[in-house]
Amino acid sequence: NADMSKENIFRIVDAFADMGVIEVSLIGGEPFLHPDFNEIVDYVKSKGLFCSAVTNGYYISRNIKTCKKLDMICISIDGPERCNDITRGSGSFKKAIEGLKILRDNNINRSIRATLQRHNLHCIEEMMQIAFEYGAILNFGLLFPQSSENGEVKTISEETPADIEYRDALKRII
């Protein structure tokens, strides 16, 4: 987040290192947009910590030197183009795949994070194929209902699958 100064981020990294944390994952919005992203990665690595970033993949090519310093780069892809672009925006699948290709071609550790939603539960096998094609680890995330202060359960999104839908999807993954 560009609203957070690098000095403040450095203080947080120092506190993590003092606590014995072994990994720092730089996440968004979009971490590559932080004006001091390269320096932040250098600082995390200088503390001997595993450093990863979660990205949409748009800025991989212009930040390849920084990418090579990261221990892992995770690109958010929620399925093949027809599924991914529903929630991530038109054209986002192609940009994410372009980022994966660059990471693969530069032998940079990579993973895909797919958030399981109603519209992409039927695409699990295709997600696995995409990960295989680009030599990426595939991680699945779930949408969970949230509780308000008064204990009322709130659904984050209409895309949140019912429990039985998640169970069926997880059986296919395992």
Could you give a short description of this structure?
The protein has 174 residues and is an alpha/beta fold. The protein has 7 helices and 7 strands. It has a 5-stranded parallel β-sheet. Strands 6-7 form a two-stranded antiparallel ribbon.
Main sheet: which strands, in order across? 1-2-3-4-5
| Helix content class | 40-55%
In terms of quaternary structure, the protein is single chain
The residue ranges in which pLDDT falls below 50 over 5 or more consecutive positions are: none
In what range is the share of β-strand residues? 15-25%
Q: What is the rounded distance between the termini?
A: 35 Å
Give the radius of gyration.
17 Å
Tell me, briefly, the overall form. Answer: globular
Number of helices: 7
Please supply descriptive tags for the structure shown above.
alpha/beta, five-stranded parallel beta sheet, two-stranded antiparallel ribbon
How would you portray this structure in words?
With 174 residues, this protein is an alpha/beta fold. The chain has seven helices and seven strands. It has helices at 6-19, 37-46, 64-67, 81-88, 92-105, 124-133, 163-173, and strands at 23-26, 50-55, 72-76, 110-116, 137-142, 146-147, 153-154. Strands 1-2-3-4-5 form a five-stranded parallel sheet. A two-stranded antiparallel sheet has the order 6-7. Helix 1 (6-19) packs parallel to helix 2. The chain is globular, with a radius of gyration of 17 Å.
List the helices and strands and how they pair.
Blueprint: H1 6-19, E1 23-26, H2 37-46, E2 50-55, H3 64-67, E3 72-76, H4 81-88, H5 92-105, E4 110-116, H6 124-133, E5 137-142, E6 146-147, E7 153-154, H7 163-173
Helix pairs in contact: 1-2
